[in-house]
Structures are given as structure tokens and as C-alpha cells.
From TrEMBL:
It is a multi-pass membrane protein. Residues 20-242, 449-679 form the MacB-like periplasmic core domain. Keywords: Cell membrane, Membrane, Transmembrane, Transmembrane helix. It is found in: Cell membrane. Residues 305-418, 716-831 form the ABC3 transporter permease C-terminal domain. This is ABC transporter permease. The chain crosses the membrane at residues 21-41, 298-320, 349-375, 395-417, 438-463, 713-736, 757-779, 799-819.
Amino acid sequence: MFQNYVITAWRQIIGNPLFSFINIFGLAIALASCLLIMLFVREELSHDKHLPNADRIVRLHSAYRPKDAPPLLTVRSAGRMMKALKSYAPDLVESGVRLLTLEPTVTVGDKVFSESVVFADPSFFDVFALPWVYGDPSTAFNSPSDLVITSTTAMKYFGRIDVIGEVMTLCCMNNEPIEVSITGVIEDLPRTSHLDINMLVQMEESMFDFAPNLLATWTSVNTYTYFKLQPQVEAHELKERIWRWLDLESPLRDYFEEGTSPTDVFQPNVMPISEIYLKAADDAGTMGDMRSLGNQRMIYAFIGITLLVLLLAAINFMNLSTARASQRAREVALRKVLGASRKQLGFQFLGEAVAVAFLAMLLAMVAVELCLPLYNSAIGRTLEFSLAGELPLMLVLLATTLALGLISGSYPAIYLSRYMPARILRANQSADQPGSRLVRSLLVVFQFSVSIGLGICTAVIFAQTQFAQNMDTGFSVSNKLVLHRIGTSGVSEQRKTLATQLERIPGVKSVVFSSEVPSQDNENNTVFQLIDGAATSSAGEELVLNYYSVGKDFFQAYDMTLLAGREFNRESLSDEVATANGEESDSIAVASAVINESALRRLGFSSPQEALGKVLRADLFGAGTHDISIIGVASDVYFRSLKFGIRSSIFINQPNRFAEATISYSDSANSHDLRQAVEKVWGEVAPMTPISYEFLEGMVKSQYDDEKRQASLLAAFAVLAGVVASLGLYGLASFTAERRTKEIGIRKVLGARVRDIVGLLVWQFSHPVLIANLIAWPIAWVVVAGWLEGFEYRLGNGYVFLACCAAALLSLMIAWLTVAGRAVRVARANPIDALRYE
């Protein structure tokens, strides 16, 4: 019996090449899509699952929600929180550790690199049990400045892995180099870890006495804080304890006025480490994590799209099988006459569908091998697919293929096996009933609804990305080269010399310094109090505002518009924020500031001119308390992606915070020659510090890399869905035209022209496509409206409507071209042959 099923299935496959090609190719596309998404989802869901006791490790996030201001969400926390909470909740917390990331210059002999170095409390290895190559975690952090590195870092600097006892120099801590001794080598952290650690130095708080905002603060959030919970303790229990401590016992109560609880403004969260990669972006924003985070909604979206593509391929099989029912009606009737049961016939049709599905699976695996490099490039991953060692994945793929075959063959098995042989053999009637034609029409409507909906979403994402990239940001982006690491010791002391030498390069117009440049997603917030503004509603009120440190001529270099006043004066030292000398002082220094329009409104001024001369008081980290006079008001600019909007910002001139230099150059300058000249100057001024630079235009565009990747992948799957739907439509058109051969012949004899017949068939298949548009439009509209909500500035409804119209026209054109090709061949046939058709 089984052999008979196999022979029959094989005969059906090779005897009906069009039917077999459409089904096998369509199912192969669906399975290849499924396999690619499975590879992606598997990696996304595996982040941080490799860590021992991952279910007990949590991270502390900070959320500040000040009154009448946008919330500040961050994955970091204040430096003093870890020890306080560990002492307050020992029944919940077994251990805790703070991580602080810096980027010093690392020197070994004549090798000099800029590295991301993580400073950690001695308890680091109590929380994170990382795999070791050399050394012992119990003794690796016995003394300050002990260093643990990864095996790749060891090979990079020493050409070998056994490097315990070697010494490296980090430059600099408070302008002083420090020597660190290697006490251990760990394995490289996998890419499925949110931790980015190459060099790990034992941290003592005294190392950072020069920067109290890092560790000795309750309010400035700069450290990553992790806790290892006691067994059986849940993350929400620690969160509840933290909130109770904040309101009842914490020193933070002194920072709030009477009647305000700390948790009214400060609302920390505790997140399990296994959830960080996919959920931290929603909980605490994307700013400042060690590595880029994933997107949970993106995973759900692509899983849903894959299931839809699989369903489209299954629908093709159902539709074509029932459309061919008239061809197989006699076969079914004869088999029943000869004794076949309905159950046996059902198994036969299911077997045929499963055979087609497994042939499609083989083709899909070949397609995945060929497409994987392009796929990795599109999603920015390094996914691998290998049959060897992929047993769990292969089992899932086999199960998916079997399920797809059974789903595809279920309706034909039920539908075809129910034929009554007496009726079929007596009257030679068509097995196709009006009900089956209605079902096929509904399935075609569903197929095109999915394809049209994906097309609309793709068009809107592309349009929004282009809109964001091309929107007037309020500052000049072109012809700017950004030099990083200006604040590094050895460079900061030579800053003026560096600027002078760079400005001598032919084509260079200016060099300006700043703490950040546009597109850098940093948050610098502190409390400002308007002490000279009695006429405003904000006088005397403490407001949390963002601030940037920018040098003289910054606004001119970026073509930022000043609505009133002036920018910082090159000749006026009083404009600068004085650096504290480390001694306690009750005196209040003075400085100047430029505010933006949003800050103007937050401070309660009715016009830019009204703000000039007013004074703000603030405690600036590393500089002490300053009375800051407003000397100018600048127009709002989009320093960050349109997803975040514009922040109320204050620009001050604090040279010790400068970390970036912007080189503006003329249109006539050659970018290659410019880079070489800049590298030469840097090598002369800072020979022991590696150069790092980028073009600002690329930095601004890279803010939308995630959206561009989403759009590319969505477009690819939308095309695949369209191909699968079109294949099914072509097959239906072919079988429909074949069944109506006599009708077409009679129409031609009665005078119908080829275009009349083509128009008849094309219009018949246009109906489900038009209905599909009516279904797809509102669903896609809701989906894209939700996605656009993530942007502060976004496309209007007119663009979405235009995308819907474009998708409708494109779907109709695809349907017409698909059907017309087959219809023309049938319509041009000789009517004599048609009328002889049996």
C-alpha cells in the first residue's frame, strides 16, 4: 500500500509539471523564509542564556520622570546605589557589582590602541561566572588595578594567550597613566551577550576621586549595576524593596521638596539579565548600553510574516488541488469502485502533499546556503547554517515541513476523497462545485490581502526613513569630519595646538570642540534654577535640563541660527565654565550659556530677548556651582534621531568636557587628501594616541540603520509573499482557462476578439484583488500608525494613503500581468481545436 502511495505521488508530480513547479517553488520560498527567520530568532532569544545562574542575575535601570519634562530613561544607575541596596536587602541580594566603561589608550611596548576598558568592583566574579582560560577567579581581583583580559585581546597585544604577569599601561586616570597587571585570561564573550568586555580592571573608588559624578553620587547615572539574587528571589521583590527604601529611608529624600516622594520622580526598575537584550530598550531606552539591543516587536513581526508566507504557500496547494478536481474526479471514482476507502484516498492525497513539501524543503536548504551571506549583510549578523551540529534546528524544520505538507493537503484530501463514483461516472459531470469556487476566491483574497498589507508597510517604513534623513535638522551636516577622543590625556593638553595645525590644512574652514556632536545619543542632565527671572513662572523653580559643552564658534560652524544674543566670545574668558581645583569652596563662579527654544519655553520666557541677561544657577560636575548668564537663544535643532524629538537644552563652554572636534571643510577639498592630512597632524601632536574619526553625514544617517534594515527585510518578505501569491494566481488562471476552453472557442466563433476574451478573464481575477485591497488597507493603516508613533516627527496620513494607492495599483498590475499571459495564449488558440476539446 505504501509503495502504491509513493508511485502515485511521483506520477502526479512528474505528470503535472506546472502544478508541481508552482507548489514546490512556492513552498520552497516559504520554507527558506522560515529557516532564515528561525536562524535569526534563535540567536535573538539566546542572549545571555549561556551565563551560569542567569536566572538570578538582574540589572538596575533608572527612570527619572520630572514634572512637565520628558522622562529620562537609562540602563545605568547612580554610583552609590549598589552598596546601599546590598546592605539594605541582604535577604534578597547575594552579591552586587558596578561596571564603569572608559576608553583609555592602552600601551604595550610599541603597540598602542584605543580600547574600551571596563572597571569593576572586586565582586565581579561573584556575580558573573565567566569561562576561564588561564588564572583563577578567586584570586584574579586581589588588589587594585588587577587586570583580566579575553584571549583575543591577549593575542592582539602579545601574540599568545598565556600572558599572566604581563603589564599594560592605561592612559590616563586624572591625567596620570596607570599600570595594570594581567592576572587572568577569559574566553571571548559570545555575540549573544549584552556584555562587551575585552579588558576588565579591578576598580577602587579612590581611582575616581577626581570625578565624583561617577561613583560618589546618588543622582548622576553612570554605572551599570548588577545584583545576584538569593535563590528563589524574584526581580519584582527587589524592585518593591528598592521603592520602599527610596521613600522611607534613602538619602534621596533630602533631594525632594516636602510632600514629594522620591518615587514620584525617580522610578528604578530591576530587569532579569535574560530579558535585557530584548526588553531593555522599551524599559530604559537605547542610550548607553554596552552593545546595541534587540527589538522584541521586530521578532514578533518577522515570525508573523514567516507564518503568513507559509500559509500563502499552503493556500496555493489547496487552491490548485481543488482547481484540478475535475481532472482527478474519474481517478477518485474508479479507485472507489475498485475498493478504495475514503480514508485510503485521504492518506494518498496527504502523502502527495507531504512529498511535495519535502522536495520543497531540499530546495529551500539550498536557497538558504546561497542567500545567507546577503541575509547576514541585510540584518547585520553573522548567522551560520550547517546540517552538522544543527539537530534541534533540523528537527524543527522537519516538523515544520511535515506540518506544512499536512496543512496543504488537508483540504484536498477531505474535498477530493468525498466524490461519489456513481454521479461522476454516470453523468461525466464536472467535480467543481460553486462552493469550491467561492472557497478558492476567498483564499486568493486572503493571499493578496497579506501581500498588499506587507507592501504598504514596506513603503511607509522606507518613506519615513527617507523623511527622517532628509528633514531639515536645523544645522549643517555636509563637509564635516568629526575627530573623537579629544578629551584623552595627551590630546586635551595639546587641543589649541591641534586646532591651529588642523586649520592650516588646505580646504579646512574651522575646527571647533564640543562634548558631543549631532547624532551622539548622550544624556547630560542636571538641575538648573532660574534665580534672575522674577517675571517668569519658573523663577526659583528647579528644572532638570539637558546641557552640552561647546566651544567658541560652534554655532557658526554648524550654521545654527541665533534668535537673539551672541555665541561664546573667543576673547572672553568669563564665558567659560571654570574647572574646580578639587578644594571645597563656598564661592559661586560665573559663566555664560546659550539656550535653545525649547529651554526658553520651559523657563517661562515669552521671547528670546526677554531671556538675555537672566541667570541660571547649577552645580556642574567637575566645576562646582556656577551662576550662568544667558547670552544667546538658538533655534531648536534635531541633535538626535527624529524618534526622540528635541530636548530642552543649554549650551555651556566647559573645556574640560570637550571630547569631540568638528573639522569643517570646503566643497573643493578632497576627502581622501583631507583624511591623510588630518592623520599626519594628529600623529605629530598626539603620537601615542590612536586617531579615530568619522564623517558627520555618515553618523547622522547611521541613526536610522535599524529602520533601514527593517524596511529591507520587510521589502524582501513582501516580494516573496507577492511571488507566492502570483504563482498561485497564475496556476488558477491556467486551470480556469483550461476548463473554459470550449466556452472560449464558442465566443470566438460568435465574433469575440482576443482582447475581449483576455479582458473577460483578467476582470474575473481582478475582483478578489480589489476586495483584498479593501481588507488590507485598514489593517495596514493601523499597523503603520502604531509604528510611526515611535517617531516624534513623522509622515502625515496623506503619505500613508498614497502608499495604499500605490500598493493597490501595483497589486492590480501584478494580477493583470499574471493572468494576461496565460489568457492571451488560450484566446489566440484556433476555435476548431477548442471545440474538439474533450
